[in-house]
Recover the amino acids of this structure.
């Protein structure tokens, strides 16, 4: 089957994402939900998450660069990102969010700046892998439909 | 139960990703789903006369949180089953005291949710 090499590539990608803790068991839960409810669910959730994460990370950079930082608002945004990343199984992003909330509690602006860079880095890495995953899935669907 | 035979569910969570996941989980059972992004919106659903059999209630939401929303709904005489779902284990007592029927820690998995739905007789 023409899609076999792409399926192998997708399997390798997902295995490495789990092995490197980009993803955890919650993502497997979503994969099982897609098997039951039909294709498109994972793509929709991943796309929703990435869009939401981009929005929150931008908002965080605005808040942290204010002359007087509202740590309450920063924490609320980080909490939201932690929630959505946990829901999709984005383990490394969720873990960095926990660290971020801790420095927020201490009203540590410098710590928040460092944590924001970490979140940006972790999310960018995950986002690239998600994009590759979705592209492979799309190519597989096209080949399998022929 | 609400007057229709279809189980009507209100999902209350400020995270759009989480709401989408719960929606997919519950649509598998043929439930009818409505979403609210915070506690005040959830209460408003009942104030305008909508009826629900089941509420999935997050706690940490802007404005009115899950504890306040649950307490308000119970005070209004709302008898719908409320499953409180939150990442904060410390809020369990407050949510149950406010009137929630069950408590789940995030992230929720499908098996855990199914067990509770069966216990509430929402599944045949």
């Amino acid at each position: 089957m023409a899609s076999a090499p792409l399926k192998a590539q997708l399997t390798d990608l997902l295995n490495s994402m789990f092995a490197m803790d980009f993803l955890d068991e919650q993502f497997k839960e979503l994969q099982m939900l897609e098997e039951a409810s039909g294709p498109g669910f994972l793509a929709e959730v991943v796309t929703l998450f990435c869009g939401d994460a981009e929005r929150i990370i931008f908002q965080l950079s605005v808040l942290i660069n204010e002359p007087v930082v509202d740590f309450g608002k920063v924490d609320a945004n980080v909490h939201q990102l932690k929630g959505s990343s946990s829901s999709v199984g984005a383990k490394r992003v969720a873990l960095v969010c926990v660290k971020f909330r801790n420095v927020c509690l201490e009203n540590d602006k410098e710590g928040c700046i460092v944590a924001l860079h970490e979140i940006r880095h972790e999310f960018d890495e995950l986002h690239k892998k998600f994009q590759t995953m979705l592209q492979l899935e799309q190519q597989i669907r096209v080949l399998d439909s022929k | 139960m609400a007057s229709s035979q279809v189980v009507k569910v209100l999902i209350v969570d400020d995270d759009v990703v989480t709401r989408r996941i719960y929606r997919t989980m519950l649509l598998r059972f043929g439930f009818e789903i409505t979403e609210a992004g915070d506690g005040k919106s959830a209460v408003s659903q009942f104030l305008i006369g909508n009826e629900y059999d089941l509420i999935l209630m997050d706690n940490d939401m802007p404005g009115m949180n899950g504890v306040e929303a649950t307490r308000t709904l119970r005070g209004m005489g709302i008898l719908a089953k409320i499953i409180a779902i939150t990442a904060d284990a410390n809020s369990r007592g407050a949510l149950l005291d406010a009137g929630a029927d069950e408590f789940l820690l995030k992230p929720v998995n499908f098996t855990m949710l199914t067990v509770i739905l069966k216990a509430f007789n929402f599944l045949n």
About this structure: The mean pLDDT of chain B is 93. Strands of chain B lie at 8-12, 32-36, 54-57, 81-86, 102-105.
